[in-house]
Description:
Low-confidence stretches of chain B: 1-23
Largest sheet of chain B: 8 strands, mixed, barrel
Oligomer: heterodimer
Helix content of chain A: 55-70%
Shape of chain A: rod-shaped
Amino acid sequence: MYGWIFRHLPGPLWVRILTSAALVACALALMVQFLFPWMSQFTTLTDSTIGSAQQP
Amino acid sequence: MAQQQTQQAAAMPDDGTGTGSEGPRPGGHRPRPARRKGRPSTGDIVRKVVQIVGELLLTAGLILLLFVAWELWWTNVEADAKQSQAVQGFAKSFAGPVAPVAPANPAGPPNYGKPVVAQAPEHGGMIGIMYIPRFGPDYSRPIIEGTGSDILDTLGLGHYGTTSMPGAPGNFAVAGHRQTHGAVLDNIHLLVPGDKIYVQTKDGYYTYVFRNNQIVLPSRTDVLLPVPTQPGATPTESYLTMTSCNPRFGAQERIIAYSLLESWQPASAGPPQEIAKQVAQTAGKG
């Protein structure tokens, strides 16, 4: 999969290395911005309130 | 023609084992279209599927590791920045001396009368700053109205809207994360009876003394009662109740820390001696 993507990137080797680094950075940014905050609702680590007193 | 077929046949096993790897490609010769025409064996397809599934699983594992790093480390970095910004914003707008002011009558303990009880702000409004010297000389966290994740996940301590405000007879209850998002109450188990906890609001300083802690199940809402854990009792004293997760990296239980209001002094009297340096530093005048 990753090999296939790498082979299909345009340009010489160093351009493809730079492009893939940029793609990885993009993926990281998307994960930090959207995926991880969404995932954190499934960890119970962050429940610090008491029972039904929790406000919306 | 026969020669070409032998070449194709020779290329076939290479195609199977070398999929995805950067095999040598002599002279830009791309035998790919020729390969597509050749019918891939079942083994090739299985290998390809296994490879893609493997790469996806490795990716999922990596994402989970990154998530753990994000949750346990990066959320703290983000929340610390937001919280110190909130604390500094509050300190800037705080009207009052940042150094202790000597009482008019030096003989005898100063008496500033009954503590001022402020109106609770709207959800998300800032009540004040909490200083806990036991958690370190630089520990100052904002206290925000509300205990939703929008408050607790970035802004620090959240005040339970159903409980009273500092200084009022009853229970001033706040929640804070033990881990992640600033880990505002990470060291709650280190409090020693007698430790001072200072709450600075726009009206003044409320000094609480830590009394005890208790580990309860998350359903125990009675810890938030005006007299904690005593339904129907009429409060005569002011409590400060802090709730957080327990154990430290879990949430099966809650750790509750109870403190009692010891004294109050108005903003015009300056901060209590123990936190004077910190208050001055936060206000940028130290």
